[in-house]
Structures are given as C-alpha cells and as structure tokens.
Amino acid sequence: SAGDEESLVADATERMKDGFSVLKLKVGTDADADVARVRAVRDAVGPKARIRLDANQGWTARQAITAIRSLEDAGADVEFVEQPVPAHDLDGLARITASVDTPVMADESVFGLRDLSTVIERGAADLVNVKLAKCGGLSTARAMLALASAHGVGTIVGSMMEGPVGVGAAASLVAAHPTTAVSDLDAAWWLAASPVLGGIGYQAGTVTLPDSPGLGIEGLL
Predict the structure, then answer these.
(1) Active site residues
(2) What's the rounded Cα separation, in Å, for the pair 187 and 202?
(3) Sequence ranges of the domains in the chain
(4) Do 79 and 103 meet the contact criterion of CB atoms below 8 Å apart?
(5) How far apart are CA 211 and CA 218, in angstroms?
(6) Which backbone phi and psi does 219 adopt, to 5 degrees?
(7) Torsion sign (Cα): 74, 75, 76, 82
(8) Is 1-102 a domain of CATH 1.10.10.10?
(9) Alpha carbon distance 148, 154 (integer Å)
(10) 3-state SS record for the chain
(11) How far is Cα 205 from Cα 66, in angstroms, rounded to an integer?
C-alpha cells in the first residue's frame, strides 16, 4: 500500500481486519517521510504484523542506508526492504546489504538466472523476488529458487497484478517449492470479481488451491 501517513495507517489497520498478517508498504519517495510513515504504521498495527518495504528503485544507496538504519534504531522491526535502488545499481545494492541489519531483497535487478547469478556472486542481496511474469515461466522460476537455495539466498514468489490464472500458477509453484519467506500473491485478491470459474481462492490472507487438476480453471465468467 502507498499514500500519506494517515491513509497508509488506515489501509494497514483495515488489511489487518481482513485477516492479513503481512503488510507491504511502498516507500522510495521522500526518505524522511518514508521513515515517519513506516513508524506510524508499526505503532498502529502493533508487533504482531510483519512489515515489508518496497522502495521500487526509488532511493539512492545513501538514502536507503540512512532510512533503514533509522527504522532499525526506532525498533520498527521491518522484515525486509525490497529493491531500494535502481535495478542497474548492483554496487549500491551490495553496499546497502553490507551496511544494514535488515535483509535486502532484489526484485527488478533479477529477471532470470543470469541476473540471479550475478547478484549472488556480488553478495548484492539477502533475498530475491521470483516472479513468473518476469522470468518467463515455471521452469526458469524453479531453477531460480533452487539456485538461490543452494547459495543461502532467501526467496519469495511475487506477482505483478495478475489475475487468478497467473497467481494460481505462482501459488502452485510455492506449494511444490516452498520459499523461505511468505510469498506475495495477493494480486488477484484486488479484483472486484474473478473472470474465471474455479481456480484459486482467498481465505483472509491465505491463498487456497483447488482440488481439481491443473490450475482448476473450469471456464470463463
């Protein structure tokens, strides 16, 4: 979620009421304001919620280090920070990873196996976000999860605002190849109505897989 401090706090508390226990906050604009907004959300939701930050390439390395250290000093208990700097800035990403205690996750810096290998070699991130729409499909995604695991790099499987078909494939991947952190598969939850019959469902903050074969899609609505 993104927005000013008041709307962000309101959204976060509403999602907690919906049954979500992991909150992803968009940052990466004004670093000082970002810190204030994250602290406000933590104060509002208490210690039970896991808070993740996604800067979407919006900070410089210096801004990221300052902001993350400020949140650490404030006890904001951030689970990880996703893609704090531009995708091409692997030097900056590595510097942040080495300079803070909070885990750093690569997203836009890693599209496929070659990118992931480079990030691993350079120690540029603690985790990687594997997305089917980004890497090209299940086979590459499985290989990326295996490569990350072999080198002690944490993993989640993410989504890019796909509907129930795309998220269903990603959820099936996670069911077969568990990630080290809770995956980010809420994209289809935002739809006003599903365009298909069957497939995945949502129970509070949990994705439910169908019992039927494949993705469980029975038809179009």
Answers:
(1) 26, 131
(2) 11
(3) 1-102
(4) yes
(5) 12
(6) 165, 180
(7) positive
(8) no
(9) 7
(10) CCCCHHHHHHHHHHHHHCCCCEEEEECCCCHHHHHHHHHHHHHHHCCCCEEEEECCCCCCHHHHHHHHHHHHHCCCCEEEEECCCCCCCHHHHHHHHHHCCCCEEECCCCCCHHHHHHHHHHCCCCEEEEEHHHHCCHHHHHHHHHHHHHCCCEEEEECCCCCHHHHHHHHHHHHHCCCCCCCCCCHHHHCCCCCEEECCEEECCEEECCCCCCCCEEEEC
(11) 32
| Amino acid (1-letter code) at residue 187 | A
Task: Evaluate if residue 41 carries a pLDDT over 70.
Answer: yes
118-176: pLDDT as tens digits? 999 999 999 999 999 999 999 999 999 999 999 999 999 999 999 999 999 999 999 99
- The identity of residue 41, as a single letter, is V
Q: Tokens 């004004």, residue?
A: 30
For the record, the structure tokens of 136 come out as 């090209």
